[in-house]
Specification:
Blueprint: E1 2-8, E2 13-19, E3 22-29, H1 34-49, E4 56-62, E5 78-80, H2 83-95, E6 100-105, E7 109-115, E8 118-125, H3 129-139, H4 145-153, E9 162-163, H5 164-167, E10 180-182, H6 193-218, E11 223-227, H7 234-247, E12 250-252, H8 260-267
Parallel strand pairs: 1-4, 4-5, 6-11, 11-12
Antiparallel strand pairs: 1-2, 2-3, 6-7, 7-8, 9-10
Helix pairs in contact: 2-8, 3-6, 4-6, 6-7
Length: 269
């Protein structure tokens, strides 16, 4: 039995194949129209992997564009899966853990509480990958993620952010002098595009990290599973590592974390 799970996102659509409860294949496409994205992702999955369409028993779709797909795709039974349930199911499957907090970093950020007892939306923020792209359009010479990352790799945060060492001579409590006191609170006139790119990424992932810390502490856990497109951002991971050093909350990045929602959709009944 094969089920195709499709996560119709705001910018990227992902599809996976689930066979006998196992995650076997993955693909992604980009399209702004939900129907084009979903049918394109399904077609790419079938054609690139030589799958006989008759072997597909069902399609399960989720994500922001799922509500726009009213009918079956290519006459295959197509059902819609709540996105929060899909994230929770996929997060537990990929991490091999239950009773967890999942921070799903996409265009925005959703924080999910998942366990064998149920899956619920803990909270979230509009700060995410969309924030990075939106600010880059106005502040940087590129709004492509690859270009933003290249600029940020050469950036100096001290040129843009106000750090504790700028206003204090000693550490404050457990905070080091290099800790950000105010994002974009310094912004020197000679700050480069690289400095600004790094500051954007730092601000976004600090917000994501601190919200995750609050959620983990509220549920008395020291681990957070990070999923979604933004989970593989290396600079973002370093920002979260700095938060781990300060607050003792471990951020875990499962393999194929960006496909979490599609996998969860495929696994859901």
């Amino acid at each position: 039995m094969m089920i195709i799970g499709i996560d119709v996102g705001a910018t990227t659509t992902k599809a996976v194949s689930i066979e006998d409860g196992k995650f076997t294949r993955k693909i992604k496409v980009k399209a702004s129209d939900a129907i084009t994205a979903a049918t394109g992702a399904f077609g790419k999955m079938i054609l690139e992997n030589g799958i006989n369409i008759s072997a597909v028993e069902g399609i399960r779709i989720t994500g922001v564009g799922a509500s726009r797909i009213k009918n079956n795709i290519f006459d295959i039974p197509t059902s819609r899966v709540d996105e929060i349930k899909a994230i929770g199911t996929g997060g537990m499957f990929l991490s091999g853990m239950d009773n967890i907090i999942i921070t799903n970093v996409g265009t925005g950020t959703a924080i999910i509480e998942a366990s064998g007892r149920g899956i619920s939306h803990f909270g979230g923020s509009g700060v995410g990958g969309g924030t990075i792209l939106g600010l880059a359009k106005k502040l940087l010479p590129t709004a492509e993620f690859s270009g933003i990352m290249e600029l940020a790799a050469a950036g100096n945060l001290n040129q843009v952010d106000l750090l504790l060492e700028d206003i204090m001579d000693t550490d404050i409590s457990f905070l080091r002098k290099q800790t950000t006191a105010a994002n974009f609170g310094k912004m020197l006139d000679n700050a480069s595009s690289g400095d600004i790119a790094l500051a954007i990424l730092n601000m976004v992932y600090q917000v994501i990290g601190m919200l995750s810390v609050f959620a983990a502490r509220a549920r008395d856990t020291k681990r957070v599973i990070v999923t979604g497109n933004g989970s593989s951002n290396q600079i973002g991971q370093q920002v979260l590592a700095d938060i781990t050093a300060l607050y003792g909350i471990e951020f875990i990045y499962p393999k194929d974390a960006e496909y979490t929602t599609a996998i969860g959709a495929g696994l859901c009944c």
